[in-house]
Amino acid sequence: MHAAQAGTPPVLAWALQDTVADLLREETGEAFRGQPPGRIDLCIRVDRASQRRAALMHASQISPAAVLWRRLQLQGDREHLRWLLPPGGPPTQI
Q1: What confidence category does residue 85 fall into, taking pLDDT thresholds of 50, 70 and 90?
Q2: DSSP helix/strand/coil, 47
Q3: Structural domain boundaries of the chain?
Q4: How far is the C-alpha of 26 from the C-alpha of 43, rounded, in Å?
């Protein structure tokens, strides 16, 4: 109840850098869409080793030839996020 009275909580979305999206689109033919640097709000360091171990537990979902592996290679140890609804502010364009 208190959370509802406080208003809408901030919302973050995962974002793909436009340079990474361009490479993935060229390499795979898939319709990746990235964000330019000015539309990325946060960059965080991540532990890819843990992510890879977790992904390998679902072998039917992923393989070293999968697009996900390539995306992880291109992104290195960083993930990018952008605010869809920033704290204390109006939503940004999607």
Answers
A1: very high
A2: coil
A3: 9-85
A4: 24
